[in-house]
Amino acid sequence: MNNLLKKAIAECFGTFVLVFVACGVAVVSRANWVATALAFGLVIVAMAYSIGNISGCHINPAVSIAAAIRKEITWKEFFVYVVAQVIGAFLGALLLALCLRGFESLGGNAIQDVLYNEELELDAVSYIGAFAIELVLTFIFVFVILSVTDSKHGNGKIAGVVIGLTLTLVHLIGLGFTGTSVNPARSIAPAVLQAIAGNSESLKQVWIWILAPLAGGALAALAYGCFMGKKESK
């Protein structure tokens, strides 16, 4: 089997598991923050040690864009990864919808009440705040990934655990603000499918869940390059 195809299948599978399991926990636990945060983190740990040796276990376009900027993958691989991740996310969301017998609630992201203004409405500050939170949380998440997976540091054996715990951490703070995306693929699929059932809130805000994580991932790659230098040639 073609090596890039293997990587694409691994990314598709990993993102499928992330959306089905972690978003599923978010829905059935009625947005219990601790349960949801742990679900996302534990899925990353499980996938890191199962498909990490195949594709690197990005299962997130924000991670892939950072890897492309760092020249850890080619831009061709980046586009293949993203397509595979989005497909996997839709498959996971569709299976979750089948289990829940509907598309109304699939764990889509939405700006939370704490970011509303005094009139309990969304305003420019709400959107700026949500964008900033997603950008910063993704920056933290991806920066940690780049650090613990850098061969210069020799942290390969524990990288999956550290990355999973970091995703748990950013979810614990982000859930109350945005529902925590930090992953465009994870957000696009539930947003689109929820809109089919008339719940279009997440889809209306989906530009945040796409642009902010991608920007955060790109900035993390650039910042890591400034601190640690270019990736060493193999």
| Class by alpha and beta content | mainly alpha
Shape: globular
CATH architecture: Up-down Bundle
Q: Tell me the strand percentage band.
A: under 5%
Q: In terms of per-residue confidence, which ranges show pLDDT below 50 for 5 or more consecutive residues?
A: none
CA radius of gyration: 17 Å
CATH superfamily: Glycerol uptake facilitator protein
Question: Strand tally, please?
Answer: 0
Q: Helix proportion of residues, in percent?
A: over 70%
Give the tally of structural domains: 1
Average pLDDT for all residues? 95
Order of helices and strands: HHHHHHHHH
Number of helices: 9
Major beta-sheet overview: none
CATH class: Mainly Alpha
State the distance separating the first and last CA atoms. 24 Å
CATH topology: Glycerol uptake facilitator protein
